[in-house]
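idk why but the lab printer keeps eating my pages so im just putting this in chat instead. protein + beta-D-mannopyranose:
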Amino acid sequence: MNLTRHPANPIVTAGEQDWRKVASFNPGVVLDGDTFYMLERACASLNPLKCNVGLLASKDGVSFELVQDTPVLKPEDFDAPGGTVEDPRIVKIDGVFYMTFVFRRVVSGCIPNGEGVPGYTNLPGQGLDEGNPYRTGIVKSENLQDWEFLGFIPTDSTHDRDNVLFPGKIGGRYAMLRRPSDYVGPDYGCDKPSIWISFSEDLKEWSDPELVAEPEYDWECQKIGAGTCPALTEKGWLMVYHGVDDDHIYRAGLMLLDKEDPRKVIGRTEKFIMEPETYYEKFGLIIPRVIFPSAFVVKEETLYVYYGCTDTATSLATAPMSEVFSALGI
Ligand code: BMA
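predcted complex ->
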């Protein structure tokens, strides 16, 4: 499948504001009327790797401007001035916007090495394996600027990120794809971090995760995670997801889930649809060789895929929808 990288890439980069001066990446994007809204993961510093969520808008899906000069979500909103809010994803359901985001109460320092995954400095007693997990928050808003907190999942100390809401109820319930990374081993039915699903009546209490998809191919053999929020197409729920291989290269693939029962995978690209090729996808501030798809929009039969590059900036690639379905063999 041929995705065309936009010539203006990377289309969103860090700015001069203190709260977004280091990097902007892994955004959620929603098309509302004729405006594309982007919630960016705005990085304020590397050590600690503190992030906020900023709001941008665009008429063409390419040139984005900040809507307000301050973050719309920040760790201080959760009494966590030493924490972080990351990787926002967004849907609109019945006229209300819902954002999922990653939250960590105490954030590590990040020490990039240029070769692969950066080093992280955890405070004593605050290591990833000693509590202080990555969990997912859910907030809602009618104007994208003022957000009301609904809750965190999970409530225990497991790590749970890459969580995305479906943009509508299925069988009367909200649905969310999630990636509880500790759910591996014989008790769970998968050997590596995988994509799971939960359902909820009220977006607060969630059903136990059920396994949807696990890594199958070499390019995703270490872990997979939901990238974009799914969108309903005539063939089913479409999603761009990410996979990580043994060399820590992040690539993108397509998955199609059954319209009525999204626990069933009905289409999946055996080969990735994008891998790091350009300079801005191979070299960056934090981690090399990362394409991290985090949002897509369908407009006039064109798929717009927004993706983080090397945890540094955001890029855009497009493809005709007809190619998307043929890549899935449909
Ligand atoms: C994942 C998350 C993402 C990040 C990616 C590459 O585990 O931390 O936010 O973009 O790694 O570093």
